[in-house]
Automatic annotation (TrEMBL):
Organism: Aquilegia coerulea
Name of the protein this chain belongs to: Fungal lipase-type domain-containing protein
UniProt-listed GO biological process terms: lipid catabolic process
SUPFAM superfamilies per record: alpha/beta-Hydrolases
InterPro entries for the chain: AB_hydrolase_fold, Fungal_lipase-type
């Protein structure tokens, strides 16, 4: 069906109607003829637009025909833009329409059996989904950490391990936390550890940094194996000795980095994998040396149309931003297209990195009332946190096996 406009002759090209629609007023029909024509294809979308146009014309009898035509042209342009968006949407779901591959059939190569050869550019879709899944587990180390210096437990995990994933809204994840991990330091480095302002604290020389988790029976069947995941937060770690040890053990490492992030470059600004081998050997016992391990997957936040141009270096290191970049990465030089349905709003959970027109407030994730609760007496206070069961009943057995304690 086509609606032709020629002068004031309004033709409704339907076999049952040969008169102008009743919504057009006499005053409108008596206006001076115009040398203008417009043909609008009627699609499923434009039928609704047509109905709206007819109603709007009847309520604006004094409006000129050119303005009506202009509005219809705008509607057509809008429909064409919508079609382009729909085309983009189709292109983002192409991978989902392909035959689904099961991780249980491909986990050895996904975990680096062949050092991810021909899997990074273009990126393998199953590899990307697994990286996102493990990345979300690493993100929990940030979400569960107590950053508040006014908290008695600043520097610790906010949740006990038995309810860890449930408290983070990840009860579907299919893993059980078995151990918590801590970093300790006897050197007083300013701002290196988060510390409470309370006089009596849970620890003066340690911070919680992560956990060990094991897949449950249902997830293990899905993965094709029992999976042990170690997730932690922290800067660059590992010197040449660390690198050599991992290679001897056959540990496969895939490093996902933002090329603009400076954090993975320290320590080791001077002594790193780029200096001559003899220099690396001389410096390998020092705390200032560093050597990269494994294979690198380099991402670039400037490729994402969702992220703003900012000089805030903390945004470049933000893990949620890394997951966003990974979600839209298809290969070097390829268009950035999100694939998993992961919400871009997560980027601003603990940063100000999304473009302002998305209207997502920065640093939007907050605890209700900053963790304060009202006592039966009506006073606001910090609740006592359940004691962490950091040493399960079998810990003594394993420490004995390692020769760290004696049975005597």
């Amino acid at each position: 069906m086509v609606l032709p406009f020629e002068g004031i002759c309004y033709k409704w090209s339907d076999t049952s109607h040969h008169q102008p629609p009743k919504t057009l007023s006499t005053q409108f029909l008596s206006q001076k003829p115009l040398q203008t024509s417009l043909a609008i294809p009627i699609t499923k979308t434009s039928r609704a637009s047509l109905a709206l146009s007819k109603v709007s014309v009847s309520t604006r009898d004094n409006e000129s025909l050119p303005s009506i035509i202009t509005e219809l042209q705008k509607e057509q342009d809008s429909e064409e833009e919508q079609q382009e968006e729909d085309d983009d949407e189709v292109s983002t779901t192409t991978e989902e329409q392909q035959p689904k591959r099961l991780i249980s059939d491909h986990w050895p190569e996904i975990h680096g059996q062949d050092d991810w050869v021909n899997m990074l550019d273009p990126i393998d879709s199953l590899l990307r989904s697994e990286l996102l899944r493990y990345g979300e587990m690493a993100q929990t180390c940030y979400d569960a950490f107590d950053y508040d210096p006014f908290s008695k437990n600043c520097g610790s995990c906010r949740f006990v391990r038995h309810s860890f994933f449930d408290r983070l809204g990840l009860n579907h994840i299919g893993y059980d936390v078995t151990r918590y991990l801590y970093a300790t330091s006897n050197i007083n480095l300013p701002n290196f550890f988060k510390k409470s302002r309370w006089p009596q604290v849970w620890s003066r020389n340690a911070n919680w940094i992560g956990y060990v988790s094991v897949s449950n029976d249902e997830m293990s069947q899905k993965l094709g194996r029992r999976d042990i995941t170690i997730a932690w937060r922290g800067p660059r770690v590992g010197n040449v000795r660390f690198k050599d040890r991992l290679e001897v053990l056959g540990v496969k490492v895939l490093r996902v980095v933002n090329v603009h992030d400076t954090v993975p470059k320290v320590p080791g600004i001077i002594f790193n994998e780029h200096v001559p081998t003899f220099v690396q050997k001389m410096a390998k016992g020092t705390p200032w040396s560093y050597s990269h391990v494994g294979v690198e997957l380099a991402l670039d936040h400037k490729k994402s149309p969702f992220l703003k141009d900012t000089g805030d270096f903390s945004c470049f290191h933000n893990l949620e931003a890394h997951l966003h970049l990974l979600d839209g990465y298809h290969g070097k030089g390829k268009k950035f297209l999100l694939t998993s349905g992961r919400d871009p709003a997560l980027v601003n959970k603990a940063s100000d990195f999304l473009k302002d027109h998305y209207l997502v407030p920065p640093f939007w994730r907050q605890d209700e009332n900053k963790g304060m609760v009202r006592s039966p007496e009506g006073r606001w206070m910090q609740p006592e946190r359940p004691k962490h069961d950091d040493h399960p009943h079998d810990i003594h057995y394993y420490l004995t096996q390692l020769g760290l304690v004696s049975d005597q």
